Amino acid sequence: MILRGIIMRKWGDRYDAKRVRDIDGMHFYMAYLMPKRCDAEVYINEKIDITELLEYIKEKNASGERKVTLFHCMIAAVARTIKMRPLLNRYISGKHYYMRDEISMGFTIKKKFTDHSEETLMIYRPKDNESLIDITDNLTPKVKEAKKEKDNGQSVDDILNIVKKLPKPIMHIFMFFMRVMDNLGLMPKAFSSVDTNYCTVLLSNLGSIKCDAVYHHLNNFGTNGIVITIGEMHKEVVLNDENKLVARDVVNIGATLDERIADGFYFARSLKLIKYLFKNPELLDKALEEEIDFEF
Fold first, then answer.
1. How many CB atoms lie within 10 A of CB 211?
2. What's the predicted TM-score (pTM) here?
C-alpha cells in the first residue's frame, strides 16, 4: 500500500522490498532444497545481432551532443526487460521471497586500463520516466567522477578500506555478524545501498577490455541473483531470410541466474525481449513506464 508517496510496510517486509506471500509450492520448496544462491545457478549463453543497434547508436551520436554506447543500450534494454518481466526483480533471503521496490543495475568501473589500476563499484537506479537518452545523460558524468583517483563522498570502497584494517580474528567475527544481518534483512542501508551484491542485475562489459562474454558466479551474500557479461562486438557471416550469406555485427552475452526466482521458460522469454529491443532500437527512446508492442 502507498499512502501519500510513502510505501506502507507489512510485518516481514524489508526496507527495499516486499515479502512475496503468495509463492507457489514448487518455488517455496526450491528455497529449502537449494538454500544457497550458488547452488541454484543456471547459465545462459546467447549471440545477439546488434547490426541495427549500431546504426541507431551512430545516428544518436551524430550531433556530438552525447556519446551513446553499447553498454548504455544494454542497461536500458535490461531495465526495460525487468520492468516488463517483474519476476526478474525478486530475490530470496532467509528462504523467503521478496519483490524489490526499484530496479538497480550494478557494475564495476576500472579507473585506468592498466594491470594495477583500482576498481570501483557503481549502482544506477533507472526511474520509470527514463529512456536511453536519460540513462546516458545521467550515467556519463557519474562514470567520469568515479574514474577520478580521489573519491568524493561515501562509497563501498571507503567502507572496505576501513574493514581491511581489522585483525583476522575480528574480521571473522565481523563477517559472521554481517551474514546474520544479511539473512535477517538488517544490513545497514549505508552499506547495502552502495554494494553491488544488493543489485537487481550486475553487468560487466568485458568487450571494453577486448574479452568475450563469460559466466560470472553469483554470491551467497546479498540479494543479487542475475549477472550478465557482454563480450566484444564482432562480425559473423550468417544466412539471412533470403538464404543469402551476409555479414552481421553480433555480440555474445553470458548470463548467470538464480533459478529459484523464476523458471527457465520465463528467463528464455525475457532474453527474447532483449533481442527484440536490439533489433528494434527505436523502442529504447520510450520511457520505461511506456508500453511497447511485443508478443511473447
1. 14
2. 0.89
